[in-house]
């Protein structure tokens, strides 16, 4: 697919000439470590955003349009989480077999 380096790149990613145990081990390690890398990059991004502030190309001060996160959004988020837990609790307690696999009831 990529001229000059495509074959070498595929062999390096696969760990050989075909998909083998080395390939699965390599992809499992990548699959495991990738969320930590993404979380670290998101944390660094938020730290930089907190330090410098977001971009304001219009130059108009928007401090009057801002509302504080706490208590307004924290209460909203807590109520949303409680509502979702209530729905899950009702589903589990009153109809536990609703989402089950039909094969579980085959004698």
Brief description of this entry?
This protein has 107 residues and is mainly alpha-helical. It is built from three helices and no strands.
What does it look like?
The chain has 107 residues and is mainly α. It has two domains: 66 residues, no CATH class; 41 residues. It is 60% helix and 0% strand. The protein contains three helices and no strands. The longest helix is centred in the middle third of the chain and has 32 residues. The N and C termini lie far apart (52 Å). The model has no long low-confidence stretch (mean pLDDT 87). Keywords: Electron transport, Heme, Iron, Membrane, Metal-binding, Mitochondrion, Mitochondrion inner membrane, Respiratory chain, Transmembrane, Transmembrane helix, Transport, Ubiquinone. Its cofactor is heme b.
Largest sheet report = none
Q: Strand tally, please? A: 0
Number of separate domains: 2
Approximately what portion of the residues adopt beta-strand conformation? under 5%
How many helices?
A: 3
| Class inferred from helices and paired strands | mainly alpha
Instruction: Give the overall silhouette.
Output: flat
- Summarize the amount of helix as a percent range: 55-70%
Distance between the termini: 52 Å
**pLDDT under 50 segments (min length 5)?**
none
List SSEs in N-to-C order. HHH
Radius of gyration: 25 Å
Protein name: Cytochrome b
Organism: Phacochoerus africanus (Warthog)
Domain Cytochrome b/b6 C-terminal region profile: 59-107
Membrane topology: Multi-pass membrane protein
